[in-house]
């Protein structure tokens, strides 16, 4: 805020409601499933305070001192954020080495205030998984910081131009807010059902929420709203935020239209500021606990999420009632210390602007250097994949003398720090279709003049077999085409897709396009490999799609899904004291009910069961022949999958010579 501004108690109390909503949602999501709307309340507050500061400065001085504005934001935001970022960097050793690159990437993205775009890119990236990074919550701060950087650069020249044209400043603000707010809201409504991951994190879909707060700052004149009406608006606003927090959940298409409820509710609470009615919301908002929580809300928001993530990592469980309460208590304690000894110390306007900006740059540089230092110290090279090895992998399992219990579980490849990057080449060559698109992409290996043409259809559980066929095509007389799409079931019936919060129509269209492709190409053999995680309701659509292929006279065969672990193999091998037991689950623990098997039996299609290559009669080891089998809980490492070429050659009776 501008130095001449005073704290508005109702806004401080609203901050408390916002941060409490987010905290309860993150600790106990089952209690407040829509508590994420607290972030939207923060956006409205930020738009109100920042725009109000800039507008008053322009009216009083006829200009906006952009460097002074930036210096104030740096003093207000960066010191506390740097302390938390450094704390997260220091906590990196608590995480498996395989997660280090992602955490450091999160620190870098947060320090550069582009974490929201980093997460938007991951939202539909199947390789990103569902890891909860300790810096993920910086996404909302990134949105606000981008607003702080861009907004003055838009406002000032337009206000100057308006003044030269004789247009009153308030009217000029109105045109700007209408253009930004209406455009952003329309885009949010359009994008949310199509691409909810990007819509949730994108600055372009959230700008209207900040513009709404800004409009309040410019057009809400003192005394224009009667006291009783302000009191009513305050109560209605508080109830609106509570209603959204209770009624919304992870299936709500958000932001879009749904974000209007918490944002308009926040605007109503701000409008209620100064209401004197005894029954107004000021009793709650102006209370000492809410004023205190509002005062530490920024630091509280910064600290709570890393504590939750570290707790879940160390204990391997989500916080319950007692642990959650302890996390909240610890978050408040750290927030208090951070507020008193970091935020307040740097908020003084006595620090010169040049020194403030230089200090801010130094804070960012220090954070980046500390995070990168962990990668250098561990000898990691992000993207490194084990290759060119003589480790036997699956060939060991074929040897009757082999006993996986004798494996050296401290000496295997790929190393834990590289396992997340040990993926098939399809992600680099971009021949694996993503969730948004319907075009059939083909991963092609081998000579087009080869005697046998093999096609594999499926999702990423098909893609993790591709290295085996890449090896077969390189050494034998086959041509291989991989047709895969992330999280997509080959089916002629659309199914509900949780990440999109709607029917996965893109998958249905892709499946139809695959059938048309197969009708043109007429391969000798069609293999279908899918994740077993789809609901049983998909069976009818699967059977219909498969029947279309058999009606063409194609040789269709299914592949039984590979084990699905209940833990991350690399983490288990790094932390377990009894790895040969803890990191080798029983067969009953790792095989799910598989829709592919059900459909194959119904249509009497052959099934390739690779279980004997991955498990013995009782257990499924995570290291076979010196190679780590799994890169996460249910995908094979590319290094291990490459050795499966021996299994596929045998099971399909292929005339291929392998070393």
Structural class: mainly alpha
Overall pLDDT score: 89
Principal-axis shape equals elongated
Distance between the termini: 70 Å
Strand order of the main beta sheet, please? Answer: 1-3-2-6-7-8
DSSP summary: helix tally = 29
Low-confidence stretches: 380-386
Helix content: 55-70%
DSSP strand count: 10
Mind describing the biggest β-sheet? 6 strands, mixed
Total separate domains: 2
Q: Beta-strand percentage?
A: 5-15%
Radius of gyration: 29 Å
Domain Acyltransferase: 10-332
Domain SGNH: 430-649
Keywords: Acyltransferase, Membrane, Transferase, Transmembrane, Transmembrane helix
Protein name: Acyltransferase
List keywords for this structure.
659 residues, mainly alpha, Rossmann fold, 2 domains, two-stranded antiparallel sheet, 29 helices, 6% strand, transferase, Acyltransferase, Acyl_transf_3_dom, Acyltransferase_3
Structural account:
- With 659 residues, the chain is mainly alpha-helical.
- The protein folds into two domains: 9-375, no CATH class; 394-651, SGNH hydrolase (Rossmann fold), CATH 3.40.50.1110.
- The protein has 29 helices and ten strands.
- The strands form three sheets. A six-stranded mixed beta sheet has the order 1-3-2-6-7-8, sandwiched between helices. It has a two-stranded antiparallel sheet with strand order 4-5.
- A hairpin with a 4-residue loop joins strand 4 (496-497) and strand 5 (502-503).
- The chain crosses the membrane at residues 12-28, 34-55, 76-95, 146-162, 174-193, 199-221, 228-248, 254-275, 296-314, 320-342, 354-377.
- Residues 430-649 form the SGNH domain.
- Keywords: Acyltransferase, Membrane, Transferase, Transmembrane, Transmembrane helix.
- InterPro entries: Acyl_transf_3_dom, Acyltransferase_3, SGNH.
């Amino acid at each position: 805020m501008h130095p001449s501004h005073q704290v508005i108690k109702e806004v401080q109390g609203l901050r408390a409601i916002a941060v409490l909503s987010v905290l309860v949602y993150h600790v106990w999501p089952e209690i407040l499933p829509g508590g994420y709307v607290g972030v939207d309340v923060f956006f409205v507050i930020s738009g109100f305070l920042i725009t109000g500061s800039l507008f008053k400065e322009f009216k009083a001085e006829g200009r906006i001192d952009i460097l002074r504005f930036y210096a104030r934001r740096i003093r207000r935001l960066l010191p506390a954020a740097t302390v938390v970022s450094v704390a997260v960097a220091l906590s990196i050793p608590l995480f498996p080495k395989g997660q280090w690159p992602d955490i450091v990437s999160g620190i870098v993205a947060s320090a550069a205030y582009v974490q929201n775009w980093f997460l938007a890119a991951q939202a539909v990236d199947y390789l990103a998984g569902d890891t909860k990074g300790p810096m993920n919550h910086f996404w909302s701060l990134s949105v606000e910081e981008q607003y702080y950087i861009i907004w003055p650069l838009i406002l000032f020249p337009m206000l100057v131009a308006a003044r030269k044209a004789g247009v009153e400043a308030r009217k000029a603000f109105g045109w700007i807010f209408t253009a930004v707010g209406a455009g952003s809201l329309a885009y949010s409504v359009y994008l949310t059902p199509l691409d909810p991951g990007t819509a949730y994190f994108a600055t372009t879909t959230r700008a209207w929420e900040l513009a709404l707060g800004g409009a309040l700052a410019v057009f809400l004149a003192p005394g224009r709203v009667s006291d009783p009406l302000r009191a009513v608006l305050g109560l209605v606003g508080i109830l609106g935020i509570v209603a959204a927090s209770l009624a919304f959940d992870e299936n709500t298409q958000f932001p879009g239209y749904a974000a209007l409820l918490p944002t308009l509710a926040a605007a109503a609470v701000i409008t209620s500021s100064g209401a004197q009615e005894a029954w107004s919301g000021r009793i709650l908002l102006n209370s000492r606990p809410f004023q205190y929580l509002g005062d530490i809300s920024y630091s509280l928001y910064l600290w709570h999420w890393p504590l939750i993530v570290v707790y879940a990592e160390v204990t391997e469980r989500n916080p319950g009632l007692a642990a959650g309460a302890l996390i909240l208590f610890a978050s408040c304690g750290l927030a208090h210390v951070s507020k008193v000894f970091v935020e307040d110390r740097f908020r003084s306007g006595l620090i010169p602007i040049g020194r403030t900006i230089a200090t801010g740059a130094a804070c960012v540089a220090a954070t980046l250097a500390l995070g990168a230092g962990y990668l250098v110290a561990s000898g990691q090279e992000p993207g490194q994949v084990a290759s060119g090895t003589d480790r036997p992998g699956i060939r060991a399992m074929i040897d009757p003398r082999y006993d996986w219990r004798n494996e050296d579980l401290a000496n295997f490849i790929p190393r834990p720090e590289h396992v997340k990057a040990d993926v098939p080449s399809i992600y680099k060559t971009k021949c694996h279709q993503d969730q948004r698109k319907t075009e059939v992409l083909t991963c092609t290996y081998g000579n087009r003049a080869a005697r046998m043409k093999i096609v594999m259809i499926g999702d990423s559980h098909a893609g993790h077999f591709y290295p085996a066929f890449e090896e077969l095509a390189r050494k034998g007389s086959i041509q291989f085409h991989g047709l895969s799409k992330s999280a997509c079931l080959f089916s002629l019936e659309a199914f509900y897709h949780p990440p999109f919060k709607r029917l996965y129509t893109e998958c249905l269209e892709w499946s139809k396009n695959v059938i048309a492709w197969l009708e043109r190409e007429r391969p000798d053999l069609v293999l279908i490999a899918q994740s077993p995680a789809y609901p049983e309701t998909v069976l009818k659509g699967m059977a219909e799609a498969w029947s279309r292929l058999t009606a063409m006279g194609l040789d269709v065969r299914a592949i039984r899904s590979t084990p699905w672990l209940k833990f991350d193999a690399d983490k288990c091998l790094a932390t377990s004291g009894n790895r040969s037991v803890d990191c080798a689950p029983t067969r009953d623990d790792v095989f799910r009910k598989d829709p592919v098997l059900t459909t194959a039996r119904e249509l009497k299609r052959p099934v390739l069961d690779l279980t004997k290559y991955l498990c013995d009669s009782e257990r499924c080891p995570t290291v076979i022949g010196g190679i780590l089998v799994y890169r996460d809980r249910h995908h094979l490492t590319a290094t291990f999958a490459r050795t499966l070429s021996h299994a596929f050659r045998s099971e399909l009776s292929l005339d291929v010579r392998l070393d």
